[in-house]
């Protein structure tokens, strides 16, 4: 549902802006803060009535128009915030009077805020008309946040399943299953009856059956609740897959619909990583988070909800069980595209020339030559996915890409001739994801001067233009003052002096580092108080101190195995939860050091080389007191020493060495990667 996405984005944008407006009563900025807070309240109010309005729009044109009016209002507010807040931001300075750089800015600032307030007054008038329509149509407010539908089954609880393979649409197998269930409790008997009825209404189509089962899973575990689903299926005039998919989509909570539709933006058969979705949804302000709320956790909940409904397929999971990557069935992806085209949630290269193209906020294309990259053609475009399959050739990205003035998210995947230096003109770009893109020419270093960029994902081993390609060597210095996530920048590009200026970093992945980088990272003050994840690749022996990083919970270290690595040269962060060690050479038992990490929950050791005399000792009363998951992979593993006192909370042991003499305690919880 595009309405929910629009309202959510505006709410989160207003919350973020309001949090940064700390001003005194009587100032123009105080009036601005009041307007922003009104926007937040009004959008939350409209969002709370979406569920009831959605259920009533089928029988009323007025209600259907009401929903459209709410969406259009939210989108117009988003445009106003994008247009005027950036200009207001430009007048901010530093210090006690930080909202004005100098006296001349006062007039500019006053004019901008007055224009902004005038625009909001018109918005308020439209909001009053919408509210009057809501009351006239008797649209109720949702007081439970949209989750009243159910006592959703915990996916980690035991489900009523047989130990045999799942069978769909075969009468003989259903008879066999019925005999088994009749010998069980009464709840199981109900499953058999509903299952046969459901299969009949789904026309025996496998995907339709699976999706229908997903709807059943969201209901309370009783016959009445499940019969509700059968009644929904009975409303379909045709027993075909598209009807069942549509019914399942309409059964989604309005809040969840935009997240499902978003999967249609990705390429066919693509394995979609969780972190890709996090960055896209954060950039579009579809999710809001704070210090106590990790965006990955928020997205993980959304993905589990969609997975429980069988609308997406989980491909891989992280060691802690959370979703790492997922896929979507081709028919479901096509359904997402059709629904998105219908309500203008996003567009594809197939509808580039339609009348609604100028209103698009999201676009996915397969060929850059089909798209003009003209800001006049797509003045409202925020998100752009480019998937180019040009065979052995190289696709061209035109210089005009820098004209997309409102673009906040850009993902490139495929083979491209070059990245135009005009990329620097994208003043509102929040996320640049080129991990899966290859370039024939080196990347322009201007991407390291984009001051509004928050997420830069380069991919390991990307090439950059040389110093000879630019006349201003001073601009080669990395200066990304707002960067929060920076993936796979070589130390040859990210100098140690630049590293000290990245004070907003939450995630950093760095390779080709030297002693200067280590000294800066190990300094008395952390490079960023906000750093939560750090990945480093060592090419030489070194000592590093991370004891000042109080929020650092994930640490991934890789080393070239041509020199012994001693863990006692590392001062680990005090609140480390997840530690990964890759391709290291150990001449001493590394567990002597690691067992002292009192908060460590996940330990992953992969591709490491051990001296023949080494044993890995996990025993002892105080050894790994919080460890829950242990993974040792891709190497010749030495003898493991385990007792009943060490690792008291361990519940999973991941290992791919079948001939290893595994202690009985680990064998009971052993799984293959």
UniProtKB/TrEMBL annotation:
Q: Is-annotated flag, keyword Iron-sulfur?
A: no
Q: Which family does it belong to?
A: Belongs to the disease resistance NB-LRR family.
Q: Which residues are in the Disease resistance protein winged helix domain? A: 265-332
**Keywords, sorted A to Z:** ATP-binding, Leucine-rich repeat, Nucleotide-binding, Plant defense, Repeat
Name of the protein in its database record: NB-ARC domain-containing protein
Q: Its Gene Ontology biological processes?
A: defense response to other organism
Which part of the chain is the Disease resistance N-terminal domain?
A: 11-101
Lineage here is: Eukaryota, Viridiplantae, Streptophyta, Embryophyta, Tracheophyta
The chain positions of domain Disease resistance R13L4/SHOC-2-like LRR read 399-655
User: What Pfam families is this protein classified in?
Assistant: LRR_14, Rx_N, WHD_DRP
Q: Which organism is it from?
A: Fraxinus pennsylvanica
Top-rank taxon of the source lineage equals Eukaryota
Q: What does the record give under GO molecular function?
A: ADP binding; ATP binding
